[in-house]
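tool=predict chain=A
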Amino acid sequence: MTDMSKMTPEQKVLRFIRQQDLVIARQKLLVAVSGGADSVCLIHILRKLQKELDIELHVAHLNHQLRGAESDADAEYVTDLAQRLGLPAIVESRDVRAYQLQHRLSLEEAAREVRYSFLARTAAEIGAAGVVVGHTADDHVETILMHLLRGSGTRGLRGLLPVNRWQSADHSLLIVRPLLDLTREETTAYCRRHRLAPRTDTSNLSSEPFRNRIRHQLLPELREYNPQVAEALLRTARIAADDLAFIDKEGARLRDKVTLAEKDSVIINKKEFSTLPSALKRHLLRAAVETLLGNLKDIEAGHIEDIMDALDKPAGKVIGLPDGLNFTIEYDRYVLSPDAASLCPFPPLEDHTGLNVPGLTNIPGWNIEATVVPQSEYTEAAGITDDFTAHFNYDKTGDKLTVRHRRPGDRFQPLGMDRPKKLNEFMIDARIPQAWRRRIPILCSPELILWAVGYRIDERAKVTRNTKQVLRLKFERI
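tool=predict ok
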């Protein structure tokens, strides 16, 4: 077993890169260099390993314009460093504070989004496989604590991954972290030993950003309780990563069996889903959300737990999620969608439309054909039927018919029943999803609700032995 304490930083980085398969020969990589000790150590080591790894390196630096002359001096330093190392550099500036105000984000969030958007665009322009960043073991520990305090669940306990993908509405970027086996103390010592004189970001001394408070206040306090707290957190992260790797594998195997992506929604089979362990349920819920949103940036463990707590609630329950997403409980399935009605087979319905009887009527989404035939012709006509074709006693319906959506207090007597019931109760019994109910066409005469179209006609309007004329109505989607 290799003694890590006797390895040089270069050896640790090379070992980590090979263990994690972080780079492939002949890859072009963009290296994010802020000018601080971590990123300066990163680019210096990668430049040494460039031939051995057979990779092409490009330097990228973004001036966030947050610290005036200091920010400008950082950009100059990185430009000079890249020249000394003989590497091409892309150095640009962005007004992060303006972006923050425009998008109503915290300064940390705004800086992150602007920085990664710049890196993603730059990587795409030069044809780089991904961006290499200088996150160290200390960043890893701080991230684990941040996620723990925010209640991010087991997934958050993994902290920083050697490789992951950053996703936004416009960009996708592969992020590679080769320094996760090095501490911040080691990167600083490396720079000092090689006389690299990295820049100091004075904003890192501020206690305002959440990460800085963890770094300067919480971690020193925790070390009073356990001097090896960093090692304990890293061990927890490794265990969480192993457990989640297994869950991810099982989730991928079950995903097509339990979930179905349709339009802008994900449908979850309630019966199949209910048999799964809670860990797999959470995994599949997160995967479904990620399918629709493209990332899980705004989805916290609490959102997933809200859904888990509601799984046994009655049909009609809706859980609101970030970005306008809703989790809706239906009778035999769960639906994750911006609009549960988007899966409804019925188009939106106008309030009140008169029908041509006999004749054709066009309303948004429907063609409606009304035919009146003698009872003698009914036997043959009755054979032509489906959920959207029905036959009525014309003497009971008359020709003053309308189509509308349901209204509070509606009642009718479903075929086969001996007394009327509330239309809403019928829809519940028929297991019609709540989001669909207002779209179901309701056929009415002046006296009766004649038909909940697609479901049941009224008992009092059915064709009987004594019927003289039969009204045939056919609804056809357009």
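The domain at 4-135+177-225 is CATH 3.40.50.620 (Rossmann fold). The chain has 16 helices and 22 strands.
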